[in-house]
Specification:
By secondary structure, this protein is of the alpha+beta class. It has one domain: 2-Layer Sandwich (Alpha-D-Glucose-1,6-Bisphosphate, Chain A, domain 4), CATH 3.30.530.20. The protein is built from three helices and seven strands. The radius of gyration is 15 Å and the shape is globular.
């Protein structure tokens, strides 16, 4: 099993950040690489499309609005992994209520690719995603 985690400080309160990213269908609101998200199974499954038209299907496995996190698995995707579990979490920053830390982490078993290659792939996805989130929060009043 391999894993990776990326964290980034955000220029907004934890509640504001969570309002933007806490919905399981909210990726198109802040992640340019996912312009489309539709729900199935009462909102427990999201079907995503990237700009190239690739489909990614993910299942929500844990959600905690109070603790500001959700975890999900990949059901279908063009990624070389199995047993993928990822968590997106918003942390408060002690001493500054107008800054939040967002952590995006995942663990998975590479399939058809080496550990280092797959760890680098998801590290880049998480980093680019959090960079995009930071830009959205900077633009919003």
């Amino acid at each position: 099993m391999a894993s990776t985690s990326v964290s980034r400080l955000m220029p907004a309160s934890p509640d504001r950040v969570w309002r933007l990213i806490g919905g399981f269908g909210s990726l198109p609101d802040w992640l340019p690489s996912i312009p489309e998200s539709t729900f199935a199974e009462g909102g427990r499954v999201r079907r995503l499309k990237n700009p190239d038209g690739d489909v990614i299907v993910e299942r929500l496995v844990n959600f905690d609005d109070t603790e500001r996190f959700y975890s999900y698995t990949i059901v279908q995707a063009p990624f070389p992994v199995v047993d993928y579990l990822s968590t997106l979490r918003v942390h408060a920053v002690t001493g500054d209520g107008e800054v939040a830390e967002v952590q995006w982490s995942g663990r998975f078993v590479p399939a058809g690719a080496g550990d280092d290659e797959v760890v680098a792939l998801f590290t880049d996805i998480y980093r680019e995603g959090l960079d995009a989130l930071h830009e959205v929060l900077e633009r919003q009043p």
